[in-house]
Design a protein that fits this description.
The protein is of the alpha+beta class. The chain has an eight-stranded antiparallel β-sheet, sandwiched between helices. The radius of gyration is 27 Å and the shape is globular. The protein starts with a strand and ends with a strand. Pfam families: Biotin_carb_C (PF02785), Biotin_carb_N (PF00289), Biotin_lipoyl (PF00364), CPSase_L_D2 (PF02786). Keywords: ATP-binding, Biotin, Ligase, Nucleotide-binding.
């Protein structure tokens, strides 16, 4: 049995693996980059080894450094988690060649499923249903055009080495085929150094169905039923659930048996996922569910399978990697209830889903459900890695119960000043079509305008902010305890500024909003409601932003200050450039809103700033 394990990953998955390893009595070793020196997975592990600078290409993706860290600490095994090197057959082989245990499938299995065209041929030979298409070696334009015409439009062109939505083009009619092929090949060459493509029949009402499989070195393979991952944005999953809604037992039996055949075809060991695309235009039917690809690793969404089966998949991985057989037989596995997971991202849906980075000054995900996270209050959300903050997971006896639980959790998220998609998650879950399981992979795109909530505070939120200040002042201290729900009347007027609008709000009446929580400090009041944070600058306290009203210069997005053209006390004219913010590889000039004087300047060249941070204040000319 493994006694010391190195986790070649970071964030929530590293913390997740450490938790199970500790329960099994296995010592753990974390690896970390400069950006993660104080990260939760580093603090949680028994040992930690620094492996390089912040960019993943110089740290988490350098296999030699990870193997060296294992040797340095005496770790016997390496668990890759997901992402980074988890599906890199060369790294898996290097771990094995170093005399270490690779907690994952054999390199040959990873290779066999690595290219989509070869994998489809293998699956077809194994009797696994495959989407009608073409994966031939003849890559001439003429042959590809002929095959596309035979398949019938619309048709999908896919890079054989593609992933993450890159190297894909939908073609609706024959006359557009050659231009789309050329564009797809260009992107595939730039992204994967491989411009070969395959063709697939376009599915008009697609659902993303995947089956969790598990194999061992003794020839055993089982499935742990299916998951539905249809709610996606830009080909990235947002909400996953198990079992798939609308899946009858006969269809489940056929698709899960096909997944087991797929795993056996590559002598699979460990945790893996067979991904299928389903044409759900007439419901879920076995003859309309087709193999898409195999993920030769643990999936982000594995907790929903654990919740409905009672299995710890990481424990199974460590046992099987140690040479033991799978702990359960197929007949012992069954589905219990329904589980849903949502990926909580550090992003701003109201700002085009731009990433949101910075320190988690306030971070509270509540105590309900199963929370998988790699951060705590005070930690940093770094611009170097995936923006996922946490996975919110629930189990219910029914799907409706699970939906209601998860929506409640999302609406109760309290995070500031980093923005999140919590309100967006709740809107997806509360949508009538989602509740009725009328969904496909185009669900979010089709409903995006109705799913993104406004970040403008309504009258109740303004009132709540004023009442929070009233309660803080009548209790003669500045800080209102985080999470306190107001149940007493205030006794003053509060002048507040929110998103450039200033109001004086009477807090002399009792105002109770059981859905809102928040806090007050000398500069601001922050109200949390329905998964969003609403920030009010306190003019009554004489803060720069409040005193200046519309003269507060706010960062429009997270970024880096690359130039500051003024100093405190400078006289400026309307439209004069004050500073330049660089964000998302673009430069944004911030200018004076009117003639006046710079009374405050908090920005400095080279500083990283958060969205809506007050960078300067201009006092209008008398």
């Amino acid at each position: 049995m493994i006694t010391k394990l190195l986790i070649a990953n970071r964030g929530e998955i590293a913390c997740r693996i450490i938790r199970t390893a500790r329960e099994m009595g296995i010592a753990t070793v974390a690896v970390y980059s400069d950006a993660d020196a104080k990260a939760l997975h580093v603090r949680t592990a028994d040992e930690a080894v620094h492996i390089g600078p912040s960019p993943a290409a110089e740290s988490y993706l350098v296999g030699e450094k990870i193997i060296a860290a294992a040797r340095q600490t005496g770790a016997e095994a390496i668990h890759p988690g997901y992402g980074f090197l988890s599906e890199n057959a060369g790294f898996a082989q290097a771990v094995i060649d170093a005399g270490l245990i690779w907690v994952g499938p054999k390199p040959s299995s990873i290779d066999a499923m690595g290219l989509k065209d070869a994998a489809k041929k293998l699956m077809r030979d194994a009797g696994v249903p495959v989407t009608p298409g073409y994966e031939g070696e003849d890559q001439s334009v003429e042959r590809l055009k002929k095959e596309a015409d035979a398949i019938g439009y619309p048709v999908l062109i896919k890079a054989v080495a593609g992933g993450g939505g890159k190297g894909m083009r939908k073609v609706d009619k024959a006359e557009d085929f050659e231009a789309s092929l050329e564009s797809c090949r260009r992107e595939a060459k730039a992204s994967f150094s491989n411009d070969e493509v395959l063709l697939e029949k376009w599915i008009t009402s697609p659902r993303h169905i995947e089956v969790q499989v598990f194999g061992d070195a003794h020839g055993n393979v089982v499935h742990l039923f299916e998951r539905d991952c249809s709610l996606q944005r830009r080909h990235q999953k947002v909400i996953e659930e198990a079992p798939a809604p609308g899946m009858d037992e006969a269809t489940r039996e056929e698709i899960c048996a096909a997944a087991v055949r797929a795993a056996k075809a590559v002598n699979y060991e460990g945790a893996g996922t067979i991904e299928f695309i389903a044409d759900a235009s007439e419901g879920l039917r076995a003859d309309r569910i087709f193999f898409m690809e195999m993920n030769t690793r643990l999936q982000v969404e594995h907790p929903v399978t654990e919740e409905i089966t009672g299995v710890d998949l990481v424990e199974w991985q460590l046992l099987v990697a140690s040479g033991e057989p799978i702990p359960m037989k197929q007949e012992d596995l069954f589905i219990d209830g329904h589980s849903i997971e949502a990926r909580l991202y550090a992003e701003d849906p109201t700002g085009g889903f731009l990433p949101s980075t910075g320190r988690l000054e306030h971070f509270d995900l509540g105590v309900e459900g199963r929370i998988e996270t790699g951060v705590e209050e005070g930690d940093m959300i770094s611009p170097f890695y995936d923006p996922m903050v946490a996975k919110l997971v629930v189990w219910g006896e029914t799907r409706a119960e699970a939906i209601d639980q998860l929506a409640d959790i999302a609406e109760s998220v309290e995070i500031w000043p980093v923005k999140t998609n919590a309100a967006f998650i709740a809107a997806c879950l509360r949508d009538e079509d989602f509740e009725d399981a009328n969904l496909d992979t185009g669900f979010i795109e089709a409903k995006l305008d109705t799913l993104v909530a406004s970040d403008e505070a309504d009258d109740d939120i303004w009132q709540t902010a004023a009442d929070f200040i009233a309660l803080a002042e009548t209790e003669e201290h500045e800080d209102l305890p985080i999470g306190l729900r107001l149940n007493a009347p205030g006794k003053l007027n509060a002048t507040l500024t929110h998103k450039g609008e200033t109001r004086t709000v009477s807090a002399a009446r009792s105002h109770v909003d059981s859905l809102a929580t928040g806090f007050v400090d000398p500069e601001r009041a922050v109200v949390f409601a329905d998964g969003q944070s609403f920030v009010f600058e306190r003019q009554s306290r004489g803060t720069g932003a409040g005193a200046a009203g519309d003269g507060a210069i706010l960062a429009p997005m997270p970024g880096k200050v690359i130039a500051v053209d003024v100093a405190e006390g400078d006289t400026v004219t309307a439209g004069q450039r004050l500073m330049v913010l660089e964000a998302m590889k673009m430069e944004h000039a911030l200018t004076a809103p009117f003639d006046g004087t710079v009374t405050e300047l908090s920005a400095s060249q080279g500083a990283q700033v958060q969205v809506e941070a007050v960078l300067a204040v201009v006092e209008p000319k008398e």
